[in-house]
Write a structure and sequence with these properties.
heterodimer; A: mainly beta; seven-stranded mixed sheet; four-stranded antiparallel sheet; globular; B: mainly beta; six-stranded mixed sheet; five-stranded antiparallel sheet; 60% strand
Chain lengths: 115, 111
């Protein structure tokens, strides 16, 4: 089954304790992306990757890191989480087509609480 | 900077009614526009993708149109059902390979 998976689905942590949220897709997609969703602010893009070893900042990259060492995986790293990073996080993937015919597929989300 | 706006923010209709959700964007230089559905506490389900060269796409009771020149897209839902109750989001892929989302329209269909 074609899918995007995220782990963990729920995470409660404390300020400053490094954490990683994993994202994996089995559709051989080049493009992968991370978003956060907050009430009243909607979905905002954190980082995206157009292929292995190619990443770039979205609109809200501060406090986050990413890496793309394999095509199927795109982990999100919070080196020193703070309470303002409490949010619902989504990973997405798609084929990378300059012509524009790219449909994004989303993972189920990771609800992160930083105390 | 691309901005995406969805109106109305919330909508309540009786079952069976046809309805239109609106999405507007400020920069017409987009590659595509995608409509999603999100149920409370859940992920996003893709409904329709319209490429920049297309005017509309249809899937079942859903029809999405795109007018790049005016910076607008509409999602038409025919014969609404209680199961259609959800938040509907539009997203545009524009320059720099970024994706910009609207804040969504929360739809409630009353039985």
């Amino acid at each position: 089954e074609a899918q995007v998976t995220q782990n963990p689905r729920y995470l409660i942590t404390v300020t400053g304790k490094k954490l990683t949220v994993t994202c994996s897709q089995n559709m051989n997609h080049e493009y992968m992306s991370w978003y956060r969703q907050d009430p009243g602010l909607g979905l905002r893009q954190i980082y995206y990757s157009m292929n292995v070893e190619v990443t770039d900042k979205g609109d809200v990259p501060e406090g986050y890191k990413v890496s793309r060492k394999e095509k199927r995986n795109f982990p999100l790293i919070l080196e020193s989480p703070s309470p303002n990073q409490t949010s619902l996080y989504f990973c997405a993937s798609s084929l990378y087509q300059l012509a524009g015919g790219r449909e994004q597929y989303f993972g189920p989300g990771t609800r992160l609480t930083v105390t | 900077k691309q901005e995406v706006t969805q109106i109305p923010a919330a909508l309540s209709v009786p079952e069976g009614e046809n309805l239109v959700l609106n999405c507007s964007f400020t920069d017409s230089a987009i590659y595509n526009l995608q409509w999603f559905r999100q149920d409370p506490g859940k992920g996003l389900t893709s409904l329709l993708l319209i490429q920049s060269s297309q005017r509309e796409q249809t899937s079942g009771r859903l029809n999405a149109s795109l007018d790049k020149s005016s910076g607008r897209s509409t999602l038409y839902i025919a014969a609404s059902q209680p199961g259609d109750s959800a938040t509907y989001l539009c997203a545009v892929w524009s320059g720099g390979f970024k994706t910009i989302f609207g804040a969504g329209t929360r739809l409630f269909v009353k039985a």
